[in-house]
Amino acid sequence: MEAERMSMGKTEVIKTLKSKGIDPVKLEKELITMLREGLGTYDIRSHLKKLLEGEKSE
Amino acid sequence: MSEVVIRLENVGVFRGVREFKLCKGLNIIHAPNASGKSSLVAGLKVVSAPTLSEQEIARVLNDYEDKGSVSILINKNEYLVELTRSSPTGAKAVGKGIIGDGITKIISFLDLENPLVSAVYSGDQEKFKQILRDVSGVSHLETIVSVLNGLKAEYEHQYEIKSKEYSARKSEVEEELSRIEAELRKIDIRINEILKDTRIEPARREIERIEKEMKDLEAIKSVKRAQEIDLLNKRASIEIEEKKKIAELEVLNEKRTKLLEERDQLKTKVIEFRKKIEEIESRIESLKSKKEERLREWKELNSALERREKVSPYDYCPYCSAKIDKEKLHGEINSIRTRLSELRDEIASIDTEITSLESEKNTLKKQGEERLHIIDTELQELDLKISELQNTIKSYREEKSKLDKKLEAIKAEITTIEDKESILKKQLESFKEIPLVNELKGLYEERSRLSEARDRQYGRLKQLEQLYSDVLRLGEIISKINLLIEYFHIRLVELGRIVVEKINEAVSKHFDLLRLAELEYPLFTEGFELRLTRKGGVVTTLAELSDAEKAILTILLTLSLKEYVAEDFPFYVVDGLIEFIDDARAKEVLRYLMEFANRSNIIIVVTKTKPYSGEPRLLTQEDILLNQLVI
Predict the structure, then answer these.
(1) Sheet with B603-609: strands ordered across
(2) pLDDT digits over A6-28, tens only?
(3) What number is the ipTM of this complex?
(4) Are B494 and A6 inside 8 Å of each other by CB?
(5) Cα separation, B202 vs B149, whole angstroms
(6) Using the beta-carbon criterion (under 8 Å), do B144 and A44 form an inter-chain contact?
(7) Which residue stretches of B566-612 are H helix?
(8) Contact B511, B521 (CB under 8 A)
(9) Scanning every residue of chain B, which has its alpha carbon at the shortest distance from the alpha carbon of A7?
(10) How far apart are CA B604 and CA B591, in angstroms?
(11) Rounded to 5 degrees, what angle do the CA atoms B55, B141, A51 make?
């Protein structure tokens, strides 16, 4: 039940974020890859800032 | 993929080029100590995971060489990584490897350098849990959430400042506007009272016409003032941007001047540097030939020593039957050993000198031609940026000039309206002997002043719209961050549970290994907590497992993780661990790995030391046994 509710919540969040120009699933992959390649929190922060301020469209 | 060819050049114990073939299935490298088993594995690792540290790469390169390479041919695709010593303790790997992340290194290369293996062998459950969280991506998600929380705090602070500023400035303008509007209303009421007064009767029609025209002109002037303010605002924003670009341009021009000066100075020095580099190169060459001579001498003396050591136990030479003078022989052996030790020191000191000269040469290259090349590239980039900036500034200036023309036209229109107002006021003055006309004239002047003040306040309100859009933009960013935090929180909960379930599921598929480690399913609880249970339900810990059980558990876990995160990676390597397992269980583990390799279409490589008492020798293709259970 809880898992189902969480899954529904996630679908809603993804839908809302997509309507605001952000694909969170793609973003998650990008950020995890960056961290696995050894990049640090500074790079993650810059990447997120660019995305949030609309310098890069998803 | 049925086989791969791995080509090693100056890797590990191998000097020069060596080629080995690995086939689908279980490849057991069964060879003596120091023959190159781990060198082959190191080569495989460096071409698979180029994210190794400089120290790790340096350990892959042969101790006596500064350059090397590893290539792998899989399904007609070649992956090549070139290794170059960058410092006495570090080396760099450049080229195309099979994968790009550091996970595969942990789950597909089980050797004693592997942090997961170290964690298991030291019984460190916390470290073990942390590695699993890294591999599954959970700790990375936590990092992302922490960065998002930091950004949220930053944007909320900006939002608070901007919205406070907006509210304060807006209420100030609105108060002023409401005061002006109230005064304007009073003036209009008074004008209407005067117009209804019987005392202005002789000139009523004329005064009413003047009032109507005055009101119409005021309305037109108000529109024109709004247009003027709008254009002035636009001009001010362009001017701000222009000033920013001019400042940028000045910095770039200063940088350009400095680079040009440096380039001129360098050009005079480069010839001197070239001569020095040539001298260093010739010195390196002579040192290398000296080293070759010493190495030749070392080899000759070494074989002479071996010959003498072989015959030393005998009284008569087993080859020529001559009597052996033991005292003389031992004297020779000692003097050869002394010379060998001297030679080793000499070779090491030559190597040190070569490294230092190479580093001097590289420094000179970097200071000379390489620096010149860098400066030229930087100048080209700078010129491009400067030209772009100049064009932008030019377009700002053109836009400003267009706005100036429009502003001039509007100002001219306002002047015309004001001239018309002056004429109307003069016309009104001609009725000054009529009572109340002087008061009316004063009221018109006051109304005109207040209207202008009201228009200016409307202009300020328009300027505040920009600030308001900033507030809205920040609010939107905060809302996106909140959604992202929510998303990543959901993912964290999901991963904490789902990944554990998947790993437990994968573990259950390797039931035979679980049985060999004498443990029961499942191994993990939510949050990657390791729960080790012996048969019969007795709970145990990593530290309490035997070395053999630890080795089997490591193999079991990495095979399970591999299925979860790196299923397509073609290799799985176990270097050294199999030695920790007793023969009976080792045979079962190898059989399991052989079946797994054939089932999963991958290449499994296991190293196993072969007891050997002969002359040291290097690994050959014959030492790699395919699908044969050697115990």
Answers:
(1) B109-110, B571-574, B603-609, B25-31, B624-626
(2) 666 889 999 999 999 999 999 99
(3) 0.92
(4) yes
(5) 78
(6) yes
(7) 583-600
(8) yes
(9) B490
(10) 12
(11) 100
